[in-house]
Write a structure and sequence with these properties.
Shape: globular
Number of helices: 8
Strand content: 15-25%
CATH topology of the largest domain: Quinone Oxidoreductase, Chain A, domain 1
Bound molecules: NADP nicotinamide-adenine-dinucleotide phosphate
CATH architecture of the largest domain: Alpha-Beta Complex
Radius of gyration: 19 Å
Low-confidence stretches: none
Oligomer: single chain
Number of strands: 14
Length: about 300
């Protein structure tokens, strides 16, 4: 099959397109003919050799943890899905990739609603599951005031909408020029960077109950000061968290059991017009090098997607 892959770690131009053996669906899995895939920070880190998991990769490696496509092979123990179904989801964790290819094996998935385009669905998987897990761990519900630091990115833009759908009031940080994007997602925008407590106070919000750090930019002491207690803060990206009493959530790709229920919620909300996956740019798979370069450049609003063009 055609696949984007790399056989040495390095910058985006280590990515090439060639042919590699097809994967097959194991028990509890489906294989899709990929229509679109996402590009995530973990893909960039694995490719650069910067991830602690890079050394676990068998090269050549096909990047991409999220994909959407049409089911063309069904493993044993799979019920409720048929060949030809349009689905979106997440690859098998142990593979740490495989999405940017002609065929990919999904470990969990949902029916793709017509309300999500192929690029949106292809880019959705781990951002939706990560945001859902974070909101669950924090206990975000109706009436919560939640501050999301790094709200405009792939995970943040999805977390804002899912939190708002739960009835939370959301304050989202971004660059000043990202304010309109954040407002469109349903967040009260505030500029990221040092001095956040003062800027949040200036919004006139009485009390911020919970904070989610998606950016991993070193803001945890400020988030603790804003919420008043480390137990009200969760980080997805700052491993110094425990030094301050702040929990870190690493997810399935980091070895933490996942809930795997976010995709169904996102699909349903999308059908009601209350959820979208902001895709700031989509590239054909054969231009994966350009896509990886773009994914590293700010301002990062939502996701970068790859579309099958073989
Ligand atoms: N633990 C987990 O399970 C898990 C799962 C998925 C992702 N992650 C991690 O979570 C992080 C975010 O992922 P993502 O997919 O959302 O990444 P992303 O799409 O690259 O977005 C990152 C966002 O952070 C913003 N940002 C940059 N500097 C900031 C600062 N100083 N303060 C606040 N925000 C800032 C960026 O804004 P600009 O571009 O405008 O600067 C961008 O919108 C990554 O480190 C990723 O590896 C963890």
């Amino acid at each position: 099959m055609f696949a984007v892959h790399f056989d040495r770690f390095g910058p985006p131009d280590v990515l090439t397109v060639g042919t590699l053996p097809e994967p097959h669906a194991g028990p509890g899995q489906v294989r899709v003919r990929v229509r679109a895939a996402g590009v995530s920070p973990v893909d960039l880190a694995l490719r650069a050799g910067r991830s602690p998991s890079s050394e676990r990769l068998a090269l050549p490696h096909i990047p991409g943890v999220d994909a959407a496509g049409v089911i063309d092979e069904i493993g044993t123990d799979v019920t409720g899905h048929a060949l030809g179904d349009d689905v979106f989801g997440v690859v098998e964790v142990a593979r740490l990739g495989g999405a940017s290819a002609e065929f990919a094996v999904l470990a969990y998935w949902e029916a793709k609603p017509p309300s999500l385009s192929w690029t949106e669905a292809g880019a959705a998987g781990t951002s939706v599951e990560t945001a859902t897990r974070a909101l669950d761990v924090l206990g975000v519900r109706e009436g919560t005031t939640l501050l999301i630091d790094g709200a405009a990115g792939g995970v943040g833009s999805v977390a804002v909408q899912l939190a708002a759908a739960r009835g939370a009031r959301v304050i989202g940080t971004g660059r000043p020029e990202s304010a309109a994007f954040l407002t469109g997602l349903g967040a009260l925008p505030v500029a990221y960077g040092p001095g956040l407590p003062e800027r949040v106070r200036a919004l006139g919000v009485e009390r911020v109950g919970l904070a989610l750090d998606v950016a991993g930019s070193g803001s945890l002491p400020e988030l603790v000061s804003i919420t008043g207690t480390p137990s009200s803060v969760l980080t997805l990206a700052d491993f110094t968290g425990p030094e301050l009493g702040v929990r870190v959530s690493v997810g399935e790709l980091g070895g933490e059991p996942g809930g795997r229920h976010g995709l169904a919620v996102a699909a349903a909300l999308s059908g009601e017009g209350r959820f979208r996956v902001p895709v700031r740019e989509a590239y054909p798979m054969t231009r994966a090098t350009a896509a990886h370069s773009a994914a590293a450049r700010g301002p990062r609003h939502g996701k970068i997607a790859l579309t099958a063009d073989w």
